[in-house]
Write a structure and sequence with these properties.
It is a single chain. This protein has 238 residues and is an alpha/beta fold. The chain is built from six helices and seven strands. It has a seven-stranded parallel β-sheet with strand order 3-2-1-4-5-6-7, with helices on both faces. The structure holds nicotinamide-adenine-dinucleotide (NAD).
Length: 238
């Protein structure tokens, strides 16, 4: 499929690791220009890259990082919100504090809101935002209450922003477990069990590229669930 992303100006949060880094590599491979925003220094990538440090929970830092990237490229065509944390995975609800809950929402929800707010003035007609939500917006495992709540909010944020903007498409991707440092940290070697369906960061990046490209021009306000069909199965005993 021809994506026609060459020369596009792309800003990616959470570009220092995992899915965000895979997105940066995939956009660069298409000839796009990439602004890598993260609270940590990302690896050096070949191509037209601008690096800007920001904690996505800090409005001043987000505004400045967006400005640096957008001014370098003379505007933005695509914004990808990947920065996220899993929070206290596996912790019982009784041991989860309000501060734990708020910390997850601050990065996963407020962080996406702030990037959308500050990138909006730099985006023109035909541009696109793509957020990383998760299958955890729709299904749950025990011990993931803050994370599931945050990803449900990203799906609603996506819909609300797609209605808010009439010239910017806004969609989100909702992958099941992806082999990244985040998932390795939470789940460890279970990711190597062939019975456990795990996707690669580049699988997710390819969905992001499609949603960022004009090939998906009729798709707006949607949550693309990529979970190997797990959530489609009923409880019927067959
Ligand atoms: N790995 C999975 O199984 C999986 C599945 C579904 C959705 N996701 C989502 O994909 C996104 C990327 O996750 P990943 O697995 O690549 O994780 P990761 O930990 O490998 O990468 C996350 C990146 O976000 C950055 N980040 C975290 N908090 C930040 C902050 N406050 N400000 C700026 N940058 C910050 C980190 O520094 C890191 O570079 C997240 O939103 C995550 O919830 C991951």
């Amino acid at each position: 499929m021809r994506l026609d992303l060459a020369g596009k100006a792309v800003l990616i949060t959470g570009a220092g690791s995992g899915i965000g880094l895979a997105c940066a590599r995939a956009f660069l491979a298409e000839g796009a220009r990439v602004g890598m925003v993260d609270r940590v220094a990302p690896p050096l990538l070949p191509g037209e890259v601008v690096v800007a440090r920001a904690d996505v929970t800090d409005e001043t830092e987000v505004a400045e990082a967006v400005r640096v990237v957008a001014e370098s490229f003379g505007g933005l065509d695509v914004v990808v919100g990947c920065a996220g944390v899993s929070g206290p995975v596996g912790r019982a609800l009784a041991d989860t504090s309000a501060a734990d809950f708020a910390a997850v929402l601050a990065v996963n929800v407020t962080g996406q809101f702030l990037v959308a707010k500050h990138a909006r003035p730099w985006l023109g007609r035909g541009s696109a935002m793509v957020f990383l939500a998760s299958d955890s917006a729709f299904v749950a495992a025990p011990g993931m209450v803050p994370y599931c709540a945050s990803k449900g909010a990203v799906v609603s944020l996506t819909r609300a922003l797609s209605v808010e903007f009439d010239d910017v498409r806004v969609n989100c991707v909702c992958p099941s477990v992806v082999d990244t440092p985040m998932a390795r940290g939470d789940l460890g070697d279970v990711l190597d069990d062939p019975a456990f369906p795990v996707q690669a960061a580049d699988d997710v990046a390819q969905h992001v590229l499609y949603l960022a490209s004009a090939r998906s021009r009729t798709v707006d306000g949607q949550a693309v669930l990529a979970d190997f069909g797990m959530s489609a199965r009923s409880g019927f005993p067959a």
